[in-house]
Inverse folding.
């Protein structure tokens, strides 16, 4: 299990928080996700043998948000 | 409920992660805490009518870690 923090653009309210956290935790291998709305970031705990940062990025972008490198 | 991300110095391993997350989630008003070990940060979801950033900082410092402003 490892953790990373992704920078996410476009989150404005609690619906955005739920969308991003939900998209991440639905992915196999993602254990926990916690959005910081003011910091425009999401901290993620995941199993790197199961899921990649690229897959997490895609899941967030599918919800309509941009992930910055 | 609101979220913040605190910068924590001195966390080196999963025992540190457990100590910091545990100290935070034991506080009344703290809903969730997720440490990013590589980023030296902890994202916290909390009820600002119940617990303050100062109290969270103290709880982390009591575990032997420094919180940077």
């Amino acid at each position: 299990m490892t953790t990373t923090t992704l920078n996410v653009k476009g989150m404005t309210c609690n619906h955005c928080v739920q969308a991003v956290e939900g998209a991440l935790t639905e992915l196999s291998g993602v254990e926990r996700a916690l959005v910081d709305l003011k910091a425009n970031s999401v901290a993620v705990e995941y199993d790197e043998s199961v899921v990649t940062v690229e897959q997490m990025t895609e899941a967030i972008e599918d919800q309509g948000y941009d992930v910055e490198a």
The mean pLDDT of chain B is 96. The interface with chain A takes residues 2-5, 32-39, 41-45 of chain B (CB under 8 Å).
